[in-house]
Each structure stands twice: as structure tokens, then as C-alpha cells.
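Entry 14. Structure prediction run on the chain below.
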Amino acid sequence: MTPVDRPAWPDQPDPGPHATQAADGSTPFDFFAPAAPGGPGAAPVAQQPAPQQPAPSQAMPQAGGPAGFGAPTVPVTPSVAPPMPAPQDPPTLELGAPIVEHHQPTVPAPAPAPALDSLPGGPDSPLYVVGDVHGYLQDLLDGLHEQGLIDAEGHWSAGRSRLWFLGDFTDRGPDGIGVIDLVMRLAAEAAAEGGYCRALMGNHELLLLGADRYGDEPVHSSAGTASFLAAWRLNGGQPHDMERLEDHHVAWLSRLPAMTVEDGHLLIHSDTTAYLEYGDSVDAVNDAIREVLNQGDSEEWWDCFRRMTKRFAFRGEHGAQAAHELLGAFGGHRIVHGHSPIPYLLGEVSTEDGPSGVQITGPHVYAEELAVAMDGGVTLEGEGKLLIARLPLS
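Output returned:
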């Protein structure tokens, strides 16, 4: 038995991890509520919270360069909340013979790296990854500057460094298009310096592109009739992002790969095994998803989005086995992903509005050290953090 991810209901709102959890870790109003007995059922729609606005000290940068670089913020550690029972592992489904027994794990031989013009690893070309940004441009600018990747004016200053974004640029936060514009500009500036800045396709990129392309066109959903535009609105879509979305943004986002391997790290957005449904190599998966975006119809696009909303594949008793399965197919010795906020992944979130009691300070390593979670929950005010890390983790 190998694990698969919780079924996704992407037409239901996903306001973040602040929701009461059922025994299986699902919430009553997110993507991942299981179907009722006898068939799929729609979870109740909750009031979408207003997007978090940046504090005055984190005002959005004006034309000519970012503002807000200054003394680092001193984190305030809240009182420790009582420990919550850990949610049960995701449901399992027979997928064929497992690669290894859970109690006798062996690391499979790496598959060939993808055909990307990667720079060789070394002290002059360090590798960095960025977790989910969700429109928090100022947090991104501050974090990149702190790491020495950009200067005080917001321009690339890292020479031959390599920088990968793990997806989810938009939705929920104040300036998703500003984030995309910054990443596109840094990609050009890094290339001119002999480095590079690249990005993976996240489920919110699929949702934004689908809403732009198909709007209110009905698509089949396990929870009933849905549309990309309705799902985008329910899941943190910001009208000002859609208003500012231009053709060059769409063209750039549509070409993003779904995965890559860098220095032995398998970089993906979602903590799911659904990538295996698109191919058995990095190039095959990237080609298959790109074909859906370029030539597929709305149903195929919706199905791709639904698969990429799944999560928690590497958590729990069988998580390491699932990680081995992905690494055996696509290469590398450790998975690095975003998508699932670390407090949600840990099962620490217990109420709709209350704090998790977890102060995020860095990436979370789990699944017998085979997986690294990089979604610090930047949307969790006072607790979350936009994570940027240099690989390998020390």
C-alpha cells in the first residue's frame, strides 16, 4: 500500500489553515473535505476573509525601487498553546507494489536531471528556494534583501546564484501581479549576471490562468457544477490582480515547469504524488502539463488544477514511502515543496480564527528527512513567515 493524497474539492474556499479539523485533518470549508457517504458533497461555503493589508512599516514600494528595508523585525513568540492531537494520516489506495517496505527504506538511484541549463553547484553559484508568496511583495523584497539576493533598490545582486520560486505568487495577499513583475525582472537581471531566477507552476497559477481563460464557463466538479472564476474568487482571488493581468504575464506563467531537480533536490510545488499521473520523468511531467495548458480543454485544465491542490502525501506513517516513490521516479535525494502551510502540515491549527501557537522560523524537515516544507504561511498574521532558504539546509 502506498499513500495518496486527500481528495481535492477545488471549488470550495481555501481561506488558509484556520479552520476546525476533522479526525482526518480536513476542515469544513477547504479544498480537502472528504465526500459524504454515498457520493461527493459540497462543503459549506464560508465567508471569505478580507485580504491582509500590509502594516504601515511595510508599505508597498513606489515606482523607482522598493521601500521598507530597515532594521530586521524581532519575532515575538506567543504563549505556547496546549498541544493538539495530531490528525490522522491521509487515506491510502492500492497503487501497485511498493518500492520498499516502510521499515526497510533504501534510497533509490537518482534519475537523470531535467534538461535545463543549470549552473554547476559550488560557492560561486549557491542555490536558494522561496516558498509561497501569495501577493506579499514587501515581505518578498525584505527577505530577498536579507539573503543578499537583491540590493536596496530591489535589483539582482547575487551574481551567479540560482534562485527557484516554488509557486503560488498570487491570491490572498495585496499585490500578486507586483510579485510576478518582480520575479520576471529578476530573471532577466540574474541571467545577465550569469545566474538565474526561475519559478515552478503552483496550483494558484493554474487557478488564475484558468479564471482568465475560461471565466464562468461551467466545468464538471466532484462537488457539482463549478467554474474557474468562481473557484478563484472563493480561494483568495484579488480583483486588482485580475485587472492588472496582461498578455505577457499569461505567456510567462503558462510556460512555467511543474518540477525540476537541482543539486539532488526534487523541487515541486505541491506535497502530492499526483505528479506521477503525468509521467515517469521530470521532462515527461513538464511536457504533459504544458500540453494541457496549451492544447487541453477546460475539463482537462480543471482536472490538472484539482490534482495539484492535493497535499499531505509525505506526512504520517507512510510519508517516507511516498517520498521514496517520487524520488525514485524523478531523481534527487530530498523533496522540497511549498503548498501546505507548516502549521497546517503539523496539525497545529485547531480553530477557524485562533492562533496555532507555532511561530514559524524556518523550513520544516520531515518524512525521515526526505522532505522539506517551505510554505511558512505568510498569510498567518503574526505567526507565518515567507521562507527563503539556501540549499542544502545546514
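The chain has ten helices and 13 strands.
Filed with the rest of this week's runs.
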